[in-house]
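Backbone-to-sequence.
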């Protein structure tokens, strides 16, 4: 299925829209907003996990792949969602979480009862010295190993929360189970899958410690990420499931390398269609991830330019393909991260144009289209395991006192992105009449969909216009990428060139007033700008976050 022309919207169901007023978003809530999404111009909806789950990682810990979390509805609701979306020419991308299952999953429960068939689905390991089997760090802090109860020296691998047990993909039965799950949903008529951390499914043989000369747990990137068998497994999946169903496939490329990303997505390799990368999302984080504050969360426009150049040029030269995004459910929102809040409107529009003008399929995360911000959540407001455990790990591993750990978490917690969608200025932002499961951002009286749709100059209308442009200018989809003025400290400037048209994109990624020389600017006409009065001049002066899209006459 065509994946380059899609306009994708990500829903994190718990916080999108509550239909039955229990304070929790649900499938009927999504259905009630399909007209809204169609009006915006969305063609593909990626829905974060809806499956049965104890919610230790809000759906990314699946206890039954074949049933729906009752908080979100029923299998009938899902069928209805697929059909109702189809009526509006919107296809559905489901989340496939195949690196791990919940420890509540029946496979794992049987493994605990020593059923040898299911024990081989996971990584169980006995330790000799009373310590964990190796020094791998969990992505959420602390050891990546969890103890098997009642068996003193037995551990199982959990690279995320201690109740997400990693599956052993070397076992062909595991792979067959996953393919069956995929067919089950594809048969219902979904378009394909966003595959959670799919590039981590091959762990280093023997599970050795990484850089064991260092003290403490280590982020074992070379032993967990992009292992040599990932391509083998993807090729098999392609042959067995993706190709026969003509499905769309997207890897969440966790800490993915650019070369592997290109290898997975080059059409001739017959693996997957596209991948996300983490480079932009990780900007300003220390080496160990978002709870490592050693870079003070600082970065420069030049860093964004370098990342953009690296990925765009790799695609031009090597022929792979990515999905572009500026926000998702795992990172604080762009307003207050890529641009300060006092430039919310111009900044949100600038980064929206960035996301839509690059080569690669654009993804919008719920609320991004109205510039939702971060709510400054206190410990008592946190819901995400990662926040609590990471503060604990900061203390245990590097002695960061709790009050500083709490400050870090308030700044970076994933809960920032998970506050309820702000639909209007009524009770609970129109999300629910019941108190929401997680605290609302108090700014909903000014930042909400209803008001944004009424204001022709809003961020929302800018997104709508961008979506139209993407649909009507194939150079945005197919055009080649050429960067101009790579050395400019603040402005990202690039051309997108296709046979029938040439576009020029000029983005001031800073709050500084700055200028750039575009000698042949009179050969261009203005398609879009985020200021009402952008003036085209060969010595082009740009205001904070000013962003301009031009078309060669
Ligand atoms: O995320 C993978 C991942 O690497 C993130 O956990 C990231 O390291 C973290 O958010 C940084 O704070 C995927 C899902 O998107 C995430 O929601 C899940 O928690 C995770 O996998 C485990 O399934
Ligand atoms: Ca509900």
């Amino acid at each position: 299925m065509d994946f380059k022309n899609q306009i994708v919207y990500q829903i994190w169901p718990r916080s999108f829209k509550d239909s039955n007023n229990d304070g929790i978003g649900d499938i009927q809530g999504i259905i009630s907003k399909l007209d809204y999404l169609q009006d915006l111009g969305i063609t593909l909806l990626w829905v974060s996990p809806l499956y049965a789950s104890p919610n230790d990682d809000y759906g990314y810990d699946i206890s039954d792949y074949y049933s729906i979390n009752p908080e979100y509805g029923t299998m009938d609701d899902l069928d209805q969602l697929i059909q109702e979306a189809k009526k509006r020419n919107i296809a559905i991308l489901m989340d496939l979480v195949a690196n791990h299952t919940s420890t509540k999953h029946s496979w794992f429960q049987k493994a605990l009862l020593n059923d040898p068939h299911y024990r081989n689905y996971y990584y169980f390991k006995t330790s000799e010295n009373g310590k964990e089997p190796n020094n791998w760090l969990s992505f959420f802090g602390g050891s990546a190993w969890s103890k098997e109860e009642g068996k003193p020296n037995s551990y199982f691998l959990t690279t995320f929360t201690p109740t997400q047990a990693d599956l052993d993909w070397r076992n062909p039965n595991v792979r067959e189970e996953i393919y069956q799950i995929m067919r089950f949903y594809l048969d219902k008529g979904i378009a394909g899958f966003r595959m959670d951390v799919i590039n981590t499914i091959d762990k280093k043989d023997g599970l050795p410690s990484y850089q064991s000369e260092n003290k403490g747990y280590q982020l074992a990137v070379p032993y967990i990420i992009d292992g040599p068998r990932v391509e083998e497994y993807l090729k098999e999946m392609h042959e067995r499931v993706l190709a026969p169903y003509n499905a769309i496939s997207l890897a969440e490329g966790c800490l993915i390398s650019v070369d592997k990303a290109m290898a997975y997505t080059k059409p001739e390799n017959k693996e997957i269609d596209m991948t996300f990368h983490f480079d932009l999302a990780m900007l300003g984080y220390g080496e160990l991830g978002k709870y490592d504050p050693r870079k003070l969360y600082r970065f420069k426009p030049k860093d964004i330019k370098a990342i953009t150049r690296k990925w765009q040029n790799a695609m031009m030269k090597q022929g792979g393909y990515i999905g572009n995004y500026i926000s998702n459910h795992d990172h604080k929102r762009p307003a207050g991260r890529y641009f300060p809040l006092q430039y919310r409107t111009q900044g949100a529009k600038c980064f929206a144009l960035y996301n839509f003008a690059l080569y690669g399929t654009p993804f919008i995360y719920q609320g991004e289209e109205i510039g939702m911000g971060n709510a400054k959540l206190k410990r008592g407001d946190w819901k995400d395991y990662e926040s609590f455990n990471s503060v604990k790990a900061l203390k245990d591993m590097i002695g960061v006192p709790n009050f500083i750990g709490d400050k870090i978490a308030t700044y970076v917690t994933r809960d920032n992105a998970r506050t309820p969608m702000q639909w209007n200025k009524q009770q609970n932002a129109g999300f629910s009449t019941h108190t929401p499961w997680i605290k609302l951002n108090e700014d909903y009286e000014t930042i909400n969909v209803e008001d944004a749709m009424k204001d022709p100059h809003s961020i929302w209308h800018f997104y709508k216009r961008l979506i139209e442009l993407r649909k009507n200018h194939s150079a945005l989809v197919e055009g080649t990428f050429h960067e101009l003025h790579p050395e400019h400290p603040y402005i990202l400037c690039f051309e997108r060139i296709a046979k029938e048209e040439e576009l020029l994109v000029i983005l001031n990624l800073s709050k500084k007033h700055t200028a750039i020389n575009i000698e042949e600017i009179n050969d261009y006409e203005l398609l879009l700008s985020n200021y009402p009065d952008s003036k085209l001049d060969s010595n082009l002066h740009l205001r904070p976050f000013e962003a301009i899209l031009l078309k060669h006459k």
